[in-house]
Amino acid sequence: MATIDTARLQELAIQHLWLHFTQMAGFDPDKHPVMARGDDIYLYDTDGNRYMDFLSGLFTVQIGYSHGEEIGQAMLEQAMELPYYTNWTYSHPRAIELAAKLAEITPASIDRAFFVSGGSEGVEGALKLARNYHTANGEPMRRKVIARKIAYHGTTYGALSITGITGIRSMFEPLMSGVRHVSPTNPYRCQHCADAGGCNLKCADEVAEVIEFEDPSTVSMVIMEPVQNAGGCFTPHPEYHQRVNEICREYGVLHVADETICGYGRVGEWYGAIRYEYEPDIITCAKGLTSGYQPMGAVLFGPRIADALISTESMYMHGITFGGHPIVAAAALKNLEIMEREDVIGNVRRNEDYLRDQLLGLKERHAIVGDVRGAGYFWAMELVRDKATRETFNEQECNVLLRDFLSPTLLKEGLLCRADDRGDPAIQISPPLITTREQIDEAIAIFDRVLPEAERRMAAMR
Ligand SMILES: Cc1ncc(COP(=O)(O)O)c(C=O)c1O
């Protein structure tokens, strides 16, 4: 392999490459390694340093980094046979096969696929499909959307309007009108139940209250992740999504599951909706659909919507040049085949309790870990100043804790994960679904080394 000139690459990056959601002023290349290679669950930078990728890229690389040859071969064969064709009016074998495969593994309410290029496009597609459906149904005034506070649904205009994170929305306002945000499911800090000793499902009732207040005949859809990522893996009460589903049915509103992260095994089933036993009208997905080996997303739906469009001869007024791209579809098919062959979701199920117990061990050993929550291979540790009172850190403390200390220190220790404060400060881990117990132990040992110093630094700030 040719030697890599890291300094030259970093210089070129600073001159020419603009990074996503990154402060480029004073960008320090030493804190941002250039990743050159992947293998199993590990990444290697251009200097050969190894990192355990406990964020799966961006919640994406379900099968890890070692299947490039097999997926690449499927892509090569497809490129030689038919490198590009469209899903506008026409089709091609790989898009058809992938749609049929997805119909096999989705909840019973879903049997159609409309392909796009990523998660934001999936959410945009769901927004438009819901309006299209209601118009076909003779209810064109159903345009409003209910989503949850702190939830991230993407950055394109419609998806950003639905996103519930004030800091990334406000600069781009006015956004799409008619979006309302309700409480997420966070028993640790929930306004309805944090002091009630457990979830009382008032957060689900809030959805009905907002629909009533807005006038049900104006509400198009409710969109929620099965387990909400932003804020730190907010898991639902086992009946929460079923209750929201009932409310949607009652008011004629479409129920959308944004499975961009939860889909494809992340929470121990093909979809979060399967784990939490509800049947959404639309699923949006991306990321794990190809394990990130190619960019792809999808809007998945079923007879309720398809029959309404077909019986009224209505067209879904939407299309994307690269949606269902044959080479990308070939990569997705191969990814799903590998996931089944290697029982990747079985690995998550077998190790979920082990991972949870190790994280709970960290909570016992370290005063700074206030809460541990999550499902499957999707977990967060909320960090607190005072475990007894659940007191959190102020903005300046969060900056020191997360950005100055934890992110660079964990990286130096060879562990990639997310230390974030889009809600209250939390460390999120979301390893590839092939991760073993030994690798979990390795990550836990790193946290055991790093968290005491985080505590010391925070104590010194008061
Ligand atoms: C729940 C959810 N929806 C949508 C998106 C947007 O996906 P993308 O970045 O592929 O546009 C994300 C991205 O992380 C997500 O987590």
Task: Write up this protein.
- The structure is a single chain.
- The protein has 2 domains: 6-63 and 344-460, Aspartate Aminotransferase, domain 1; 69-341, Aspartate Aminotransferase, domain 2, CATH 3.40.640.
- It has 15 helices and 15 strands.
- The protein has helices spanning 6-16, 56-59, 68-81, 93-105, 119-136, 157-162, 166-169, 202-214, 240-251, 272-275, 303-311, 326-341, 344-365, 395-412, 437-460, and strands spanning 35-39, 42-45, 50-53, 112-116, 144-148, 179-182, 219-224, 254-258, 282-285, 297-301, 369-375, 378-383, 415-416, 418-420, 426-429.
- Strand 14 (418-420) and strand 15 (426-429) form a beta hairpin.
- Helix 4 runs parallel beside helix 12 (326-341), helix 5 packs across helix 11 (303-311) and helix 14 (395-412) crosses helix 15 (437-460).
- The longest helix is centred in the last third of the chain and has 24 residues, at 437-460.
- 48% of the residues are buried.
- The model has no long low-confidence stretch (mean pLDDT 96).
- The protein binds pyridoxal-5'-phosphate.
- Pyridoxal-5'-phosphate (PLP) binds at residues 118-120, 123, 152-154, 225, 229, 258, 260-261, 286.
- Pyridoxal-5'-phosphate (PLP) binds next to helix 5.
Topology:
Layout: H1 6-16, E1 35-39, E2 42-45, E3 50-53, H2 56-59, H3 68-81, H4 93-105, E4 112-116, H5 119-136, E5 144-148, H6 157-162, H7 166-169, E6 179-182, H8 202-214, E7 219-224, H9 240-251, E8 254-258, H10 272-275, E9 282-285, E10 297-301, H11 303-311, H12 326-341, H13 344-365, E11 369-375, E12 378-383, H14 395-412, E13 415-416, E14 418-420, E15 426-429, H15 437-460
Parallel strand pairs: 3-13, 5-6, 5-7, 7-8, 8-9
Antiparallel strand pairs: 1-2, 2-3, 4-10, 9-10, 11-12, 12-15, 14-15
Helix pairs in contact: 3-12, 4-12, 5-11, 8-9, 13-15, 14-15
The protein binds pyridoxal-5'-phosphate (PLP).
Pyridoxal-5'-phosphate (PLP) binds next to helix 5.
